[in-house]
Amino acid sequence: MILVLNLNASVDKKYKINNIEKGTVMRAFNVDNTAGGKGLHVANVATTLGEDALVTGFLGGYTGSFIRDKLCEMNIKNDFVSIKNTTRECLAFITEDLEQTEILEPGPELIEGELDQFLDKYRRLIKDSSIVVASGSIPKNLSTDIYKNLIEIAKESNKKFLLDTSGDLLINGIEAKPFFIKPNKDEIEYIIGRKIETTEDVLKEIDEFHKKGIEFVVVSLGKDGSIAGYRGEKYRIKVPKVKAVNPVGSGDAFVGGISVGIERGYDIEKILSFATACGTSNVLEEETGIVNIETVNQIMKEVEVLKL
Ligand SMILES: Nc1ncnc2c1ncn2[C@@H]1O[C@H](COP(=O)(O)OP(=O)(O)OP(=O)(O)O)[C@@H](O)[C@H]1O
Ligand SMILES: [Mg+2]
Questions:
Q1: Checking phi first, is residue 222 left (phi over 0); if not, alpha (psi -120 to 50) or beta?
Q2: Does pTM top 0.85 for this prediction?
Q3: Which one, out of 230, 260, 290, 300, has a CA that is 20 to 30 A from the CA of 17?
């Protein structure tokens, strides 16, 4: 089983409005509410691809109930800790000029005992899992060492840990040597503290991560594909040109693809082309963090994985 951690789920609300004008009343023509969170996208992708995946984390209040119902409708297996405070909402306003303006709530505070409940559940679920995937941000009052601690627990039972997060969560998580990380350009630049300009810059950073004990590193570059390092070997992955409908969540679809490829025992080049096709398939869908199996199989034939 692929165990997916989504510690800061949200109800994503997408509003279509004419324009944003400070200090006025604006009416939306349309609002669309979905269950959001990067881990939820990963679990959705793995489930769509036919693997056994389960998502866990914290859910509370009416927004938490909404997410549980949606996961049930989508047949995504889940086992969340119920918390006292209310799961967050994230708002996106799409204006006539097709610009998107977002407001991301910080997430609920956990009260005493809720983290311990989660850790008990995690230790129990991990026994039936082969891989753990952790994606995204965390509730307000959790330590930025949380992923580091969860990686250490996974290591005690020899489970591969895939970490897709940013900022201090990523910096601290790296200390515990996750099996896999997938920073995008912004994320890697933030953690190394300078710009990356060339393929050589990326390859150098991948070597640094290998030296720190991370076996599998992918630096994702949106429509420019990605650069990967696996146990010292390096790869440049090129994607076919497509007409993007909604690129948000492509990284999550990519990580979902990586987890499925590992679970199925694909060789490294097939893991990379499969995950890349998942990222590109997401770009072609209106909804965030979803893939279409036929599209994935088609695009996989067009992805180039070049050993460097
Ligand atoms: N416009 C695009 N065309 C084709 N493939 C794409 C495009 N955007 C993304 N992809 C595929 O998805 C992968 C991940 O995309 P990206 O680097 O944008 O991830 P990300 O920034 O982590 O995304 P998110 O955090 O929104 O999920 C890319 O390496 C590529 O394989
Ligand atoms: Mg990402």
A1: left
A2: yes
A3: 290
